[in-house]
Amino acid sequence: MLSVLRIFVALLFLQHGLMKYFGFPANSPPNFTMFSLAGLAGAIEIVGSLLLLAGLYTRQAAFIMSGEMAVAYFMLRPQRGFFPLTNGGELESLYCFVFLYLVFAGPGPWSIDATRRRAAIA
């Protein structure tokens, strides 16, 4: 189930980066530029999600993506209130802690990381 969680969350998170850069599956944000904070976030979302999806450098990618979500939460939400339910930050909070969980739990058995680890032991 750990691998299923990792793959599913990676596919969900990938949509955010694809939306920013390619306008798929939803329209790009207005005034989006590649060389901005939103552009950096989109790059992290695409590259990190693809790494997570494959299970390659999972812990490192998840750590960076968890940090991105923490920054997104604390930049956008506190001025709207303390609790994620009232300030609209539930998604950032959930992603942040799922990615943090993956940092410590690892990628699971269906991953390139696990395959490389098995090959190194053999």
UniProtKB/TrEMBL annotation:
Q: What is the protein name for this chain? A: DoxX family protein
User: Membrane-spanning residues where?
Assistant: 35-57
Looking up Pfam families in the UniProt record yields: DoxX
Q: What does the UniProt entry say about where the protein is found?
A: Cell membrane
Q: Name one GO cellular component term.
A: plasma membrane
**Similarity annotation:** Belongs to the DoxX family.
Query: What membrane topology does this protein have?
Result: Multi-pass membrane protein
UniProt keyword annotations, A-Z: Cell membrane, Membrane, Transmembrane, Transmembrane helix
